[in-house]
Amino acid sequence: MAKILMKGNEAIAEAAVRAGAVNYFAYPITPQNEVGEYLARRLPEVGGVFLQAESEVAVGNMLFGAASTGKRVFTTSSSPGISLMQEAISYMAGAQLPVVLLNIMRGGPGLGGILPAQSDYFQATKGGGHGDYRLLVLAPSTIQEAVDLTMLAFHLADKYRNPVMIIGDGMIGQMMEPVEFPDSYTEPELPPKTWAATGADGRKPQVVKSLFLDPIALEKNNILLHEKYQAMKREEIRFECYKTAPKNKILLVAYGTMARICQTAIDELEGEGISVGLFRPITCFPFPEEALYAEATKSNIETVLTIEMSMGQMVEDVERVVARQRPVKFFGRTGGIVPSPEEVIQQIKQILASGQPTKVKV
Amino acid sequence: MQSLTTTFTRPEGLQDVVTHYCPGCTHGIIHRLVAEVLDELGVRERTLGVAPVGCSVLAYNYFNTDFLESPHGRAPALATGFKRLRPDMIVFTYQGDGDLASIGMSEIIHAANRGEKFTTIFVNNAIYGMTGGQMAPTTLAGQVATTCPMGRDTGKTGMPIRMCELLSGLVTPAYLERVAVHFPQQIIKAKKAIRRAFQYQIENKCFSLVEVLSTCPTNWGKTPAESTHWVEENLKSYFPLGVYKTPEGAK
Ligand SMILES: Cc1ncc(C[n+]2csc(CCOP(=O)(O)OP(=O)(O)O)c2C)c(N)n1
Ligand code: SF4
């Protein structure tokens, strides 16, 4: 299929439809409103369900009910809305329901602002709601990748019977880029959804629940969930290395929009004869631990520089993985301020000159 | 000698298990009425129940239908999500007064206002049963609860919420009726109302809610017999029984 120019939010919406996800529940919030507006038109065309709920609390719980049918369901929101969905996300993880959630992150905490941010990394990757659970977290850095990962997200949600979260930011949502949708979409076959509630017709009643009052049963459920997360770590790690080379002294680590800006900075530095590489996690959970450790501890690497649109969240994973084998530096801007390639270049040059990134002056 | 025949059997809609409800609690009667109605309407095999958080949290162990176990108060949202994707199925939520009228107030009002085609069985026992007898939004003025040990002070906590009256203020068509199960003649009327509620759903007519005044001898600190009289003398006068709304407009 030919490439078409699309806004990120609309491309993501269309990608979901192409992946057979035609049931959408949401509550408006900037900067992702185009998703809902697109789907309000598109879903009736394909016989899907579009419902604007009364709140994100209700959205999360509508997803619980809807996913229990065994059909593909999803929502999109932005940071404050995702916070309100944490109750249902925890319940859905406990009840092993497949669902896809997109968080077009904006600056926080609180009402924060409406501009792009990456400050919900902790919430997405470390739990968010109560209890021992994880989401599979995907972080696209281009609109084409957002399309591809959205389609993949539904497959992974079904494969693991687990909520999958895509984390983008206002840039991914609002930017326009040429994208290509596959002519026909096929995915590896998955087992039938025998766990779905479809009516106790000729079989015993099916119960979809996260309640296990017996401690042995609850621990068993937690172990089962844990085993799924271990399987994700074995099978679903995704990452990309950009211009990593034996002469590099610095390894950048960044994801999403920030990774893209780092790539621009790397290209510009190349013109000046300075060679720097980038490690870009595509799955933030499972975090690409082994691959990052291997890149960061190559004998030529002297410093690892993590750059985020936050005060430093993923950097804690980077520090954990690099495990003091190399100094891990951090640079970040927040509040909706997106670091420019020039700022990144300045940080890199500073480290090369003195070994220290400069402090952000506000 | 005359041979014996069974005249009173367990409805197919209920599983053959012992419930955990306290002696004298009317949750069990209400379960049975719902199950009988599902049997009589022949819809058990295509029914989905949504259990609340409250004493009836384990309802999924008692009903012989598919079930979802909801977060506290969110059953109407789960029911909405499910029913929108499976309009061919019969969906009901079963909720207590803390679940529906306190933490879940937003979800029930908006589900009713959207005219979601499911049925809510609203069990009003004027107290939080499961957590040990705290004040509910439906606790009567002056009624003693563990979090209002001197009796409910309506000057500080407002008056008890009447859900049928509140929901009947919505313009969207609905079926709303308040019934009780403390005496046999009330039980017969309650069953009729529950049947009518499911009938409207089968006809895809409207949202339907039956509020059932229920007992909680354990947390009211009363015997089962005293409890039924307390419903008659106190609950019923603040929560009048009757039809509050029908989709036809007339009562
Ligand atoms: C979010 C959340 N808050 C509080 C609770 C604790 N809780 C469990 S049941 C309940 C009250 C139930 O009362 P009601 O709905 O009146 O039902 P009953 O037990 O009387 O049948 C509460 C507050 C909970 N499970 N979840
Ligand atoms: S605590 Fe009250 S509502 Fe709960 S089972 Fe006992 S009597 Fe019934």
What does this structure look like?
With 362 residues, chain A is an alpha/beta fold. Chain A has two domains: 3-235, Thiamin diphosphate (ThDP)-binding fold, Pyr/PP domains (Rossmann fold, 3-Layer(aba) Sandwich); 240-354, Rossmann fold. In chain A, 41% of the residues lie in helices and 19% in strands. Chain A has 13 helices and 15 strands. Chain A has helices at residues 8-18, 33-45, 56-67, 79-84, 86-94, 121-125, 143-160, 170-174, 215-235, 256-271, 289-296, 314-322, 341-354, and strands spanning 4-7, 23-26, 49-52, 73-77, 99-105, 136-138, 163-169, 176-179, 207-208, 239-242, 250-253, 277-281, 283-285, 303-308, 328-332. In chain A, strands 3-2-4-5-7-6-13 form a seven-stranded mixed sheet, with helices on both faces. In chain A, helix 2 links the parallel strand 2 and strand 3 (49-52). In chain A, helix 3 (56-67) packs parallel to helix 5 (86-94) and helix 10 crosses helix 13. The longest helix of chain A is centred in the middle third of the chain and has 21 residues, at 215-235. Chain B has a single domain, classed as Rossmann fold (3-Layer(aba) Sandwich). The radius of gyration of chain B is 17 Å and the shape is globular. Chain B starts with 26 loop residues before the first helix and ends in a 6-residue tail after the last strand. In chain B, strands 2-1-3-4-6-5-7 form a seven-stranded mixed sheet, with helices on both faces. The longest helix of chain B is centred in the C-terminal third of the chain and has 19 residues, at 184-202. Chain B contains ten helices and seven strands. Chain B is an alpha/beta fold and 251 residues long. In chain B, strand 1 (47-51), helix 2 (59-62) and strand 2 (66-69) form a beta-alpha-beta unit. Chain B has helices at 27-41, 59-62, 75-85, 97-103, 105-114, 154-157, 163-168, 184-202, 217-220, 224-238, and strands at residues 47-51, 66-69, 90-96, 119-124, 174-180, 207-213, 242-245. In chain B, helix 1 (27-41) crosses helix 8 (184-202) and helix 4 (97-103) crosses helix 5 (105-114). The mean pLDDT of chain B is 97. Classes of the chains: A alpha/beta (362), B alpha/beta (251). The interface between A and B is large, with 39 and 34 residues. Strand 9 (207-208) of chain A pairs parallel with strand 2 of chain B, so a sheet runs across the interface. The complex binds thiamine diphosphate (TPP) and iron/sulfur cluster (SF4). The site of thiamine diphosphate has 17 residues of chain B, from helix 4. Thiamine diphosphate binds at residues 53-56, 72, 96-99, 123, 125, 127-131, 136 of chain B.
